[in-house]
Predict the structure of Nicotinamide-nucleotide adenylyltransferase.
Amino acid sequence: MDSRVRRAFYIGRFQPFHLGHHKVISEISKNVDELVIGIGSAQDSHTPENPFTAGERIMMISRGLKDLALQYYVIPISDVYRNAIWVSHVKSMTPPFSSVYSNNPLVSRLFNEAGYAVLYSPMYNRTEYSGTEIRRRMLSGEEWKHLVPEEVVDVIDEIKGIERLKEVAMKGDIETLE
Amino acid sequence: MDSRVRRAFYIGRFQPFHLGHHKVISEISKNVDELVIGIGSAQDSHTPENPFTAGERIMMISRGLKDLALQYYVIPISDVYRNAIWVSHVKSMTPPFSSVYSNNPLVSRLFNEAGYAVLYSPMYNRTEYSGTEIRRRMLSGEEWKHLVPEEVVDVIDEIKGIERLKEVAMKGDIETLE
Amino acid sequence: MDSRVRRAFYIGRFQPFHLGHHKVISEISKNVDELVIGIGSAQDSHTPENPFTAGERIMMISRGLKDLALQYYVIPISDVYRNAIWVSHVKSMTPPFSSVYSNNPLVSRLFNEAGYAVLYSPMYNRTEYSGTEIRRRMLSGEEWKHLVPEEVVDVIDEIKGIERLKEVAMKGDIETLE
Amino acid sequence: MDSRVRRAFYIGRFQPFHLGHHKVISEISKNVDELVIGIGSAQDSHTPENPFTAGERIMMISRGLKDLALQYYVIPISDVYRNAIWVSHVKSMTPPFSSVYSNNPLVSRLFNEAGYAVLYSPMYNRTEYSGTEIRRRMLSGEEWKHLVPEEVVDVIDEIKGIERLKEVAMKGDIETLE
Amino acid sequence: MDSRVRRAFYIGRFQPFHLGHHKVISEISKNVDELVIGIGSAQDSHTPENPFTAGERIMMISRGLKDLALQYYVIPISDVYRNAIWVSHVKSMTPPFSSVYSNNPLVSRLFNEAGYAVLYSPMYNRTEYSGTEIRRRMLSGEEWKHLVPEEVVDVIDEIKGIERLKEVAMKGDIETLE
Amino acid sequence: MDSRVRRAFYIGRFQPFHLGHHKVISEISKNVDELVIGIGSAQDSHTPENPFTAGERIMMISRGLKDLALQYYVIPISDVYRNAIWVSHVKSMTPPFSSVYSNNPLVSRLFNEAGYAVLYSPMYNRTEYSGTEIRRRMLSGEEWKHLVPEEVVDVIDEIKGIERLKEVAMKGDIETLE
């Protein structure tokens, strides 16, 4: 790896990309030259927990970070459902990085066991800036637009994301058809 | 596709095939020339929710529909666990169809996004004519035979289905061995 | 299994379904009550060796067997790429059968090891009635229609099958993009 | 199979290998010449229910059985998530065996349907000698070392197993990243 | 999709990214606002045909396109080995696009069947600007650096790519161990 | 890992286990305390290149090594078809080891990139002691028994291995049915 570049890794599901994510990335950007942003559970979409496709999430992140002067890479990371190989999987799909920002204990553990330096990612208001909370608001008709970047509101509008979320949240999944 | 033939798609898990399914298909048959019947979660069997194999379910449907003058195709559809590719998966395994009958919001949504006309499937008494309810009755020793076509009773007898259901419902699965 | 019904299994890839297949099934039908027809490599399509989807092949078989008074089931069988579990895979997707018709040594071996009676399938002119030969003729513009049932010609016309075959045969596959 | 050797199969997840397992195997060893020990859910690790890798569990079993004069084979068995093919999967990965020891109803059912003799495995105190209970004690800081063979304590020490379990039990998994 | 943005899709394996790719993308950039660049066979690496990981290829492309004023997205596309679902797979992983640039007949066919406009990608000298040719030169010690952007030479140097290619090209693969 | 134990890793496909393998392991045993023996392509069987199941190969190795005073572990390693994650896959399925014996350039490369010491495995007559050569002899009826340990001859006899090899070598595979 080019040792002159400080490149870090940060992963989330971004369902949707919200201002909490934006704040974290903004803080991280002060300490690194480049950031690799992994989109977790990239293969999932059209479920209550993962309404948006990886492609739609890439759009949200790319537009939502336009105000940031940071060289970043957005990479879909599909689940492999095997923790012991997950770090190798991530490494093979991403530009090389030397540090990881995460507050998730499992992510930290796995990267630690693989020899990586894991740093706490900056804090933000996790009660409101939470994908779970934002999806709950979307479903109940409460206000949510102030919790995400303006550009994300546009993306969700364009793909009729609220309508989709409401429909897929109504009942069951393909694996439990009557 | 041959535009002279009106061919529709209908999917269920058919655990087991019951009189509610029969009624729906009977109603649909008035509006179509041919029906493609997908067997969902085809790969599953020997679980409390999916006691019967795809092959056994094919037997139930084929025998249970003998009284119906309808050209139909019964096709096992294995789960792919990715909603975004599910419609393509179904299409590749089935004769071409132009409409879909479903009351499941997710199935409707996915076919809608793929450009298909989705029609409400006819209604029936969903409290009793329900796979979940019938399996519950099978387990508790309550009466269930009046809820399925006679031929399905025969199939379940032949494969000793009640015995199997009771055994697999007793405890856990292969993924949670002590 | 219902012991009164003699049910057998026969598998092919049916790329496309041709008069050799028709003759074999016609001969088998004299000795059985019902036939389970497996469509091998069901997941494949749009390749030079497997141009047609499982759904399209189901159409070919269903129409091509209309003149036969035989109760049959057409079931897509996706490859599992593990010979040791293949028979279990087939069994789970099909109505129960007691005998297998096959001239393929591997198929025979695997069913034999699983305790099945395997019978030689009836012979026919394998030089002309061959999927490989028919696809070669389709590509080179030679005559092929006399080698398949009329109804199969119709299906291939409807799906513009020759055009598709010619395009997918031109170069490489998704795994070898430049 | 060599008919002179009585070889049996026994499967568990061994998270961790404990004295209950040891007692069962010790009892079985009186009735067989050789034992095939399957490690279930071999692909899983770094989760609250499956903290240890298959390799680590092999270590625990091998060292923990050192006091037993039994010819045994320890084989990782990855989940296939399809009950109908599970027995074939197990058979392909293991030396041939003629009987199965299990108290798990699903395991018994699947081997029974495949024609195997299934024997009840010997009883032991399942309240204390339980992987679930031992992992609970590990997490809460209660005593657990008396429930496993000494050698297993050593293995868990060497791999810093308690620390790992505590970290991976803290929150979520890779599939539910915020 | 935002109808004001003309966004196109272009896919290659980029083993490695070379001046032919650069020229194509440069030409396409005159006709579109944004370009989605798919990295095919993203899961492959350390083979004679696919020596570089998806992450390394992302580096090559990102650095190699620095001189181009184009908004682009580089997305790893893992193989799904099923042509019938491939377009859905690509769509789910990418920002929405309305046109596809490709000279590959299969890619064109699949996108055409899915209703996409497929345009011929601009021509370049395919004899020299070819991944196969460049890898051949790397192996035989011939000159290759003039065929790729300078930045790609740097990336390959950093990861010791030539050494890796030579080693993995020496003999067999994991599936054919002696 | 327990630093007092020198544990190494050695992998082959063992189709079948022959005297060359025996010699290598015998030599390695002089330098290590324990050896982890990986069975590559464990999921394959009933093919001309991989006639024997993982379980059968375990039998061959266990019996064939009876004359050796070495603590070893025989572990089936299924292919993952992704070189970048292969070492992690192996590690998760095996007791921890600190060195690797291999002459295969890809295996060496992958373990080297993962930070392992890779040692050349001892030499033997690779022209005769070769799985490929032994299978060729089995098929052509030439002498092969002097190339494997006596116990391996017994195993192959018990499972009627020559008969199986001859049948599966006759024609094609499940993926190329006519």
User: Anything to note?
Assistant: The longest strand of chain A covers residues 7-12. The interface with chain E takes residues 1-2, 42-43, 45, 53-56, 58-59, 62, 73-76, 78, 91-96, 154, 158-159 of chain A (CB under 8 Å). The domain at 7-168 of chain A is CATH 3.40.50.620 (Rossmann fold).
